[in-house]
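User: Can you help me understand a structure? I only have the sequence.
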Amino acid sequence: MFILVSNVSTSISWAIIVLQRNSSQQSPTQTFYSVYSLNLLLHVLNGSYLLNMEAQMNLNLNFNQQFYCKFTRLMTERLKIIAYLERKNPCGDLRCGPGEQCIISEDGQGYLSGHCICPKVCDNFGDSVESTPLCSTDGTDFPTLCHLRVHACKTKRNITVKYYGKCDPCENFTCPAGTMCKINADRRPECRCSQQCDLYSDPVCGTDGNTYENECLLTVSSCRSDKSIQVYMKGRCSENNPCSAVFCDVGQSCHISSDGVASCKCVEYCAPIMKPICAMDGKTYDNECEMRQSACISKIYIAARHTGTCGSGICAGFEGCIPPKVCVVRDGHPYCECESCDSRLSEVCGSDGITYANACKMRQESCITGKTIYQKYSGICEGCYNVRCEFYAVCISDNRATGSCRCPDHCPEEGILGTVCATDGITYQSECHMRLTACHQQRFIVVAFHGTCDSCQNVVCPYGQQCDDGLCSCPSECALPRKNEEVCGKDGVLYPSKCHLQKASCHYGAPIAIQPLSECVRESGIDNCECNEVGAYDTRCSTSGQCRCRPGVGGKKCDHCHSGFWGIHLIAKGALGCQPCSCSLFGSSRNDCEQLTGRCQCKENSFGSKCDSCDPDSFMTPNGCRKKAEYMAPKSCTEMRCYHGAECIMDRSGLPDCICPSGCFFNDYSDLANITICGSDGNTYDNFCELTKFACKHQLDLVPASLGICHSQDNEMNDIQIRRGRKLETASMLGTFCATNQDCKTYNAYCAATIHASIKICKCRERFFASNDGKQCIQRF
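Assistant: Let's start by predicting it. Here is the structure, written out as tokens:
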């Protein structure tokens, strides 16, 4: 006999009680019955519990009495279990507040209940999603999801995850000069838009209706503005420009299609950043770009009311800010401030006739000056396309679309980045104040370093380092190099760019010369060439077996010094290479010297290790030491001896004169053609060519003294006389000596101090680099 007890749910097994009649020996009223095992599978919440109800009975009962009593008691317990199992999840219908979590507890009698509580402790789960930084929907960065829930629970605000990662990945992300931080498809920050464009003129007209001096500048502008700009046609846009017949509303920009049709378009791309803005229309936008995009599409003017989400925060109920100022929270209090702007390039023409980098910059200017400035149209102001202003002036377009250069008339009360020391030796309140002064005085002044001028006055920096606010440091970063910008160093290293080589030179503490790219042996080289460990850069050599020798070192295996050099053993002690013998041209009989001591072989009557000394009653002449009383100036080329490759000719007055060659005369110093050297006069020269030109012109007893810049002991020049106020005809060239900024005729160059305050050279100002011919300073992008 089978009795069906219940079918509670799919998670509970059928409960079957089996009543068996034993043998025929028993009467119907004295039957043997067994109740077999009842197994119930109970699934509750997070765990699984196996409830075993063992009801194994061997009873000899009277069915109508004893078994009925036992069965009734058993079924009562069974029904309690069924009622317990039929209960729902205690958290199933419970609705917790923002950030709260439902926790299940037991009351001691087997009954479960759910409670909503705020998380108190945030555990770290390593690299799991639960423990990664994230950005919330209110624009706040949190280290983990747990911290977001804690904040949401305490503030009772429904805050969820917007992005995994920082709200603005580019915030506090530093890029090298000339580059911009951009967010890639994975929301990771990258330094881009770093192409370094030459200043050659090959105008192209872009699909945005603007003229660019060359295609490279168009590409950089496209990257910086986050716009898709292609070349519409070669030449300037002024002729047959489709955009000239289209007038775009505020927020729109002109775009020329491939078939030459111009149309106005709104912003198509906004970076995935979370900087919420509550606008005047009562809506919250993820960032300013999306607010402008919405305003453009709906053709309704929308301005920012305050930063943050609408209806929440301290600024939500603060109505005291008059546009263009917006409400920001500082130290828990609302303040009205001018909005901060990024460096995004999306030029707009303001009602004051000035072209601004973007609309935010225009509003910022209006806010700072208190002037009413609104956007007339997108793009550069008419009349300013081809106007180039100098000395920090800006082009202003009048009502007749005529552009003219004017100086800025104000600076913010608080200087950006603080005080600066300019190249005129004056400390300015800010870079803006420096530019204002430079413009009004029509003088070329640039920032020498940040801080006051006296902070670097007595600071002597090692080679390549620059003083900034009293501290010496090497260049920290280099712009991303373009293709084919590699340079080969004399150390045999192939550097991505000249900047990377200069950075390595700075950390090395000595200059690294540039040599032809072919000298930097790549994979085609041969390893283990038995190169000299001291004289060679490494063990590799070319296919011809030539090892890569250090400066002044010669031989296929780089195992000896060139003629005119000495001291290969000094390389092991830190020297760059073999040192020039530095024998006096006037007092020595030959240009080579002893290899261990560097001592030169002197002419008659001259002495000293370099043969540069004479007796007290004599002095050094091009023909050696001569008695002062007996010396007579040469009157013919037979008596005249010229040095440094010069040739003697008779001038119009009938006297002999040494005429220098147009190029450089290297002779035995070819290794110094491209390396900075210290001359025997105590001056540092960019290369041997600079030294030999100066020495040849004045027929000086001037030879290389050592490789690298001139160093002195205890910061004193000892008995070496420094030449002061000396100028060459090439003073306008970059890298040549100068006394003041006026000596450097190259635009965007200034007279910079070297390791010795008395020695200055012309160099490009910050964010500019020298062209290959040394005649131009080209801006880094």
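Now, to help you interpret it: The chain has eight helices and 55 strands. The first helix runs from residue 66 to 85. Let me know which part you'd like to focus on.
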